[in-house]
Amino acid sequence: MKYESQRIAYWFFAVCMLLFGLQLVYGFIMAFAHAGYDVLHDIIPFHTARATHTNLLVMWNLCGFMGAAYYIVPEEAERELYWPKLAAVQLIAFVVVGVVALVGFHFSWWEGRKFLEIPRPLDYLVVIDVLLFIVNIGLTIFKGNRVTTTASVLYFGLLMAALLYLPGMIPTDNQTVDSYWRWWVVHLWVEGVWELIMGGILAFLLIKLTGVDREVIEKWLYIIVGLTFLSGILGTGHHYYYIGAPRYWLLVGGLFSALEPLAFLGMAIYGITMAKRGGRKHENRTALLWTIGCCVMSFVGAGFLGFAHTLPQVNLYTHGTLVTATHGHMAFWGAYAMLILAIITYAMPKLTGRKLYDKPSATFAFWTSNIGMISMTLAFGVAGVTQVVLERRMGMEFLAVQEEIEMHFIGLILAAALFTLGIIAFIYNFIRYGWPRGEVRTPQAAEPEPEGVGVPAGADA
Ligand code: HEM
Ligand code: HEM
Ligand SMILES: [Fe+2]
């Protein structure tokens, strides 16, 4: 660790681990309910579990992005965080607002809009909190000793993510208009500005882990940002097909969203190429594994499975079914969950001064969670396709179909148990790292940024 204030990232990552663990508990509640064992129905009905599961996911992802930024930006800007104490206050406030929202869901205090369930008064607090973060990071970059492309792309992504929260707060009592704005948040986040955050974090990791020149890695970043904007903005139209919006969205949404996988393909090729080109053997191989894994699995989940239902002719049948959940799980896992687990795996040895990355439990966590998630995707996929055939093709009644597919959720539970085993290993490793007591090392003594390819093994601190 080069700067004292990077230490705050540890606490953001610790909150991530906690919320992630809790998210899985709610996943199991829903999986059991789907399998016919809705035993908690009176205390935690399905809609409450669902809102809690997805909001916990969004919360820990945002927390991970903020932690990543607090770790990366001082190193990129070559200075301490502008306002370290504010970062701590901002984390506490974020957790308090989050917990109030989650508890509120259990008492039916919610907005009922998928992914944006947080009640309006709390939305304002979220906005203030995130703006404090944006200002803190912005001032660190602005007052820093250098401005890198990596930090700029990361910052722009975070800033736009904060601003794009606002369209979801536009008041309307029209269902179509409400849906229209909701997608500005949900779609333009995960298929727009979050991809920039992803590009920035990946670039940082690849620079540190592969030893390939910064210029080469950052050139790729421009290509990925370009592809994201070219396809992702108008690609929003793939959510406007059947919500009562004008017909031209069928063409615009279909055409542009079909191009979206290119950005994810770019990231997969980027990660693999850089890892192959880099002559540097960084000690922390597990961090590289998570980084390359993220590049590849995001293509599978977002690119491939996204494309599978993005054309209007297909979406007509699959819309709002378990096919969406199939894609949602693998895309969120591959792109954003794995990304955060990658930066945590990279940063923890530096934050705590302990090197636990070559322990068998670290490798076990990677493979078990990934094999578990692939199996979960298959279970959801089979249930989803069966649902589409029975309900949308053959016209069977919704609840009758749900009963038909109960069996697939036993498969899901087994796959999710495997996945959870991997995540428990990850969290166990996180706890074993201990408190953030890592030494601050001068930029010279700490990891020197490689000048080119082929920095000798063990050059990293
Ligand atoms: C990392 C990037 C991505 C993530 C995290 C993600 C996640 C999700 C989630 C959670 C949903 C459900 C949203 C809701 O109903 O409120 C969804 C829907 C959808 N996604 Fe993605 N997605 C990603 C990228 C993509 C890409 C690249 C494509 C197209 C090539 C795509 C195509 C779709 C479509 C068509 C739907 C609507 C499904 C429906 O009509 O029910 N997604 N995505
Ligand atoms: C123990 C593991 C997990 C289980 C058992 C589980 C189960 C479920 C179930 C049953 C649903 C509801 C599907 C429906 O609407 O009928 C769901 C929704 C969802 N879960 Fe999970 N989940 C797990 C882990 C995860 C993880 C790790 C992620 C993200 C990385 C995730 C992301 C999502 C998303 C985005 C949705 C909403 C999908 C949509 O909009 O259609 N889940 N989950
Ligand atoms: Fe989308």
Structural account:
- 73% of the residues lie in helices and 0% in strands.
- The protein contains 15 helices and no strands.
- It has helices at 8-34, 46-77, 84-105, 120-142, 149-163, 175-210, 214-235, 248-259, 261-277, 285-308, 312-318, 322-352, 360-393, 398-404, 406-433.
- It has a single domain (7-433), classed as Cytochrome C Oxidase, Chain A (Up-down Bundle).
- The protein starts with 7 loop residues before the first helix and ends in a 28-residue tail after the last helix.
- The chain is mostly helical and 461 residues long.
- Bound molecules: protoporphyrin IX containing FE (HEM) (2 copies) and fe (ii) ion (FE2).
- The site of one protoporphyrin IX containing FE (HEM) has 26 residues, from helix 6, helix 10 and helix 12.
- Residues 24, 27-28, 30-31, 34, 50, 53-54, 57, 324-325, 328-329, 332-333, 337, 416, 419-420 line the site of one protoporphyrin IX containing FE (HEM).
- Kindly report the average pLDDT value: 93
Q: Low-confidence parts, pLDDT < 50 over ≥5 residues?
A: 451-461
Strand content: under 5%
- What summary fits the major beta sheet? none
- Which class in CATH terms? Mainly Alpha
Number of domains: 1
In short:
The protein has 461 residues and is mostly helical. The protein has 15 helices and no strands.
What features would you highlight for this structure?
single chain; 461 residues; mainly alpha; Cytochrome C Oxidase, Chain A; 15 helices; 73% helix; globular; disordered C terminus; binds protoporphyrin IX containing FE; binds fe (ii) ion
